[in-house]
Write a structure and sequence with these properties.
Elements: H1 10-16, H2 35-44, H3 51-54, E1 64-69, E2 72-73, E3 77-79, E4 88-89, H4 91-102, E5 106-111, H5 117-122, E6 128-129, H6 137-140, E7 143-145, E8 150-152, E9 154-159, E10 175-178, H7 182-190, E11 195-197, H8 200-208, E12 214-218, H9 219-228, E13 232-235, E14 244-246, E15 249-251, H10 255-270, H11 273-287
Helix pairs in contact: 1-11
Length: 288
């Protein structure tokens, strides 16, 4: 998700997740189903969901809610030996599974590069994108977003002996980011040159191997990488990186699906489900 600065301590990052907003969705077009139109929908990959399952919410595959993600962003989405949906696990994956099941559907995951998610939405390859995706004005031009479910920030990962203490110190350093992530947006806006990688692990390995000086990425994910690699630390700079909000993206105009997702997220924020998932995956990361 793909992203702005986060707290160096993951506990603080997850505490920030308790601050949420609420909103509501709208209407979407309903498809009439006949033998001929169903055949056409199959070809186009835009079947209408069974009335007995989701009512009027149209999905690319009947009875299946397909979420696109980038499973390189722990603790939100990652590959596991015993995933929540197939091999995929994480806060976002657990949310996706619950939302689908509570609406009488099956959740499926399409794993792809973060930068491809909104394109996949527009092309109808997926129904929704859940990938720690920050709501941004330019992204709103090509997709609609649910109410936010998590508040985040960006941080810098550096080696323990690094002299980088603030974002301004990156001016003459070699910077690595993940393509499409908010970290790339932030560094680009600062006017610093950087190298973008497809995966967070690739960017961090550049740092570990001494091929770059700093990686800019979301704090919760940064904490995971620091835990997994000795000799690294997190540097914060709240004055340089503003807080941001994660939300689920849907194809622009798909307001019935947006409405369904908003209702589910609002309920999960109210009953503490998302906070509980955050705590669960935070404990797993810090225990490793």
């Amino acid at each position: 998700m793909k992203k702005g600065t986060k707290a160096a301590a993951l506990v603080l990052a997850m505490t920030m997740a308790m601050s949420f907003l609420t909103a509501c969705g709208g209407d979407a077009d309903k498809e009439a189903k006949t033998a001929s139109t169903e055949a056409t929908a199959d070809t186009a990959g835009t079947e209408t969901a069974d009335e007995g399952q989701t009512g009027t919410v149209a999905t690319k595959t009947e009875g299946v809610l397909t979420f696109g993600t980038n499973a390189e962003f722990p603790p939100f989405e990652f590959v596991s030996g015993s995933g929540v949906i197939d091999q995929y696990d994480g806060i976002d994956i657990a949310i996706a599974k619950q939302i689908a099941e509570e609406n009488g559907m099956t959740a499926a995951i399409e794993n792809m590069e973060f930068a491809s998610l909104l394109i996949a939405l527009e092309n109808g390859q997926i129904d929704a994108a859940i990938a720690g995706m920050t709501v941004m004005e330019d992204r709103k031009e090509s997709a609609d977003f649910t109410i936010p479910y998590y508040t985040a920030t960006q941080v810098m990962i550096v080696k323990e002996d690094s002299d980088i203490a603030a974002a301004a110190d990156m001016a003459d350093k070699k910077i690595c980011v993940v393509e499409g992530y908010t970290g790339e947006v932030c560094v680009n806006e600062m006017g610093y040159p950087y190298e973008a990688f497809k995966k967070g692990t690739e960017a961090v390995m550049e740092l570990v191997n001494g091929k770059c000086d700093v990686v800019v990425i979301d704090s919760a994910t940064a904490q995971k990488y620091v835990n997994d690699n000795e000799g690294l630390k997190i540097v914060e700079d709240a004055s340089a990186f503003e807080s941001e909000e994660y939300a689920i993206a849907v194809k622009k105009g798909n307001t019935e699906l947006l409405d369904m997702l908003n209702s589910a997220i609002e309920a999960k924020l109210a009953d503490g489900t998302i906070s509980e998932l955050g705590a669960k995956y935070t404990e797993e990361i810090t225990a490793e």
